[in-house]
Amino acid sequence: MSVGNKLEMDRYMVRGGNPLKGEVVIGGAKNAALAILAAALMSDETVTIENLPDVRDTNVMLDAMSEIGVVIERVSRHKVKINGANVRNVNIEYELIKKIRASYYLIGALLGKYKEAEVPLPGGCNIGSRPIDQHLKGFRAIGAEANVERGQISAHADRLVGAHIYMDVVTVGATINVMMAACMAEGKTTIENAAKEPHVVDVANFLNSMGADIKGAGTDIIRIHGVEKLHGTTYSIIPDQIEAGTFMFAAAVTNGDITVKNVIPKHLESISAKLIEMGCTVEEFDDTVRVKGTDHLKPTNIKTLPYPGFPTDMQPQAGVALALSEGTSLVTESIFENRFKYVDEIVRMGADVKVEGNTAIITGVKGYTGARVSSPDLRAGAALVMAALAADGVSIIDDIHFIERGYEDFEVKIRKLGGIIEKCGGDIDVQKFTLKTSVV
Ligand code: UD1
Fold first, then answer.
1. Which atom of ligand 1 lies closest to the CA of 313?
2. Which residue of 108, 214, 407, 421 could cross-link 181, Cys pair, CB 3.0 to 4.6 Å?
3. Which among 102, 114, 104, 29 is positioned nearest to 70, based on CA atoms?
4. 3-27+239-438, what's its fold?
5. CA–centroid distance, residue 195 to ligand 1 (Å)
6. What is the pLDDT of residues 338-363, one digit of tens each?
7. Which of the 8 DSSP states describes residue 392?
8. Residues with Cβ < 8 Å from 322, sequence gap 6 or more?
């Protein structure tokens, strides 16, 4: 059996009932890191990246880069040196890369630097159909021939020349990808209707620290003047908005009191706003937020939107909290059509939720009851762990390999906050866990 399959058998056992209390330190943003790692190969000089999250997706990205000749030196768990001077192949064949959505960032980086790239069509979480037409449209606009054939995205150009690009939808991936390639195109590129997410800004700041000329990231018009070369840099990745938001909502779900450290509170405003509407207390400090839960969670309505709206990556965690509120809430998913797969699982834990189209109608119940459930995807998996932490009794969460794609030391951080959770591989001994944890 391959290591991959073995990891896929890992699961969590959770005994609910303890409110999560204390401090948690947030790591670097996974979604910024994936783009920044790919972009790092665009220089022939060494790039040092700090505050790198040690999660499955970033490690797969590093392995794929090393397969094509990028020299990777893991200085420490959260720091890596990358040198892309000797890339020997622009065709990524590394099998595991198909599992991560952000593999497409290797196209933007390689196309920008070498005017040529071939990368397997990305996989990632199955949260809906995930087209790449806007990526291809952007690459074509700056002069590349870009196509999908035989399961690969391939792009090549004799010259890349700046252009005016209007994105038909607000897309984080296409904005970042086209921005990377355009950095090394001749002349000026304008991306209109660009995504404004904090990680778009982080990737632009990173590229600028390598000598790129990008203005306007964080607004919906990004202007790029192409440069011939990018140089080395040392750069620290921003904190992960979604990891932070997950722990903030964990305080609401378990009626806890969590101080979430190493965050940028401005990036968390839509999350804080919903928690306050639900009756939680949110205090903001320079790089910390503290969230206190309440006995009487209030219902509210949520619609996911591009930043600064409520993030789709927080929708399941919010849904799990609203299912314990005193009333009915509507949660509308407007980014991905298949993000309610966690609903069937929480219904098995006693929640009262109906999904109609892209809206979940959530009627609050008094509490969850422990059950065996399965993580349908990364964020939904984290949300199920939160439900299990609030539930009466023991739960088993299968398929936690999804959770490990994006959360570093998830169970360790939860245990430090007083949650009762254990990871186990292969055969489970529920009886042993039940007995052991019932005397805690
Ligand atoms: C990124 C994040 C993901 C997050 C999502 C939205 C990474 C690795 N993943 O995904 O966690 O949930 O942003 O914040 O950073 N679309 C098109 N054509 C395209 C590209 C996208 O129609 O070429 C649509 C998608 O179907 C979706 C919307 O645009 O409805 C937003 O997708 P996008 O922002 O691109 O998501 P990802 O970059 O894939």
1. 12
2. 108
3. 114
4. UDP-n-acetylglucosamine1-carboxyvinyl-transferase; Chain (3.65.10)
5. 10
6. 899 999 999 999 999 999 999 999 99
7. B
8. 278, 297, 299, 300, 302, 329, 331, 362, 364
400 vs 150, more confident: 400
User: Ligand 1, atom 5: nearest CA belongs to which residue?
Assistant: 172
Q: Are 313 and 379 in contact (CB under 8 A)?
A: yes
The arrangement of strands across the sheet holding 281-284 comes to 21-25, 257-261, 288-292, 281-284
Residue 311 Cα: closest atom of ligand 1: 14
**Ligand 1 within 6 A of 400 CB?**
no
- β-bridge pairing 152-156 and 145-149: antiparallel
CB-ligand 1 contact for 283 (6 Å cutoff): no
**Given the structure tokens 């010259």, which residue do they identify?**
159
Do domains 3-27+239-438 and 30-236 share one topology? The answer is yes
Q: Where are the domains of the chain?
A: 3-27+239-438, 30-236
Please write the tens of the pLDDT for every residue from 257-312.
Answer: 999 999 999 999 999 999 999 999 999 999 999 999 999 999 999 999 999 999 99
The β-bridge partners of 219 are 217
Reduced to 3 states, what is the DSSP secondary structure of residue 337? coil
Q: Is the CATH number 3.65.10.10 carried by domain 30-236?
A: yes
Question: Burial letters for 120-140: b for 16+ Cβ neighbours within 10 Å, e otherwise?
Answer: bebebbebeebebebbbbbbb
Least confident of 13-27, 120-134, 309-323, 402-416: 120-134
Q: Which residues pair with 196 in a beta bridge?
A: none
Catalytic amino acids?
Answer: 125
Q: How far apart are CA 404 and CA 296, in angstroms?
A: 32
Looking at this protein, which amino acid is placed at residue 372?
R
Give the pLDDT confidence of 201-212 residue by residue, as tens digits: 999 999 999 999
Omega of the bond leading into 376 within 30 degrees of 0 (cis): no
Q: How confident is the model at residue 2 (pLDDT cuts 50, 70, 90)?
A: very low
pLDDT at 311: 98
As a whole number of angstroms, the distance between CA 371 and CA 189 comes to 53
For residue 34 and ligand 1, the question of a CB distance below 6 A is answered with: yes
Give the CA distances from residue 65 to residues 41, 106, 108, 284, in Å, rounded to whole numbers and listed in that order: 8, 8, 14, 39
d(CA 384, CA 343): 10
Q: Is the dihedral of CA 201, 202, 207, 211 positive or negative?
A: positive
Say how far apart CA 14 and CA 375 lie, in whole Å. Answer: 14
End-to-end alpha carbon distance in the chain? 36
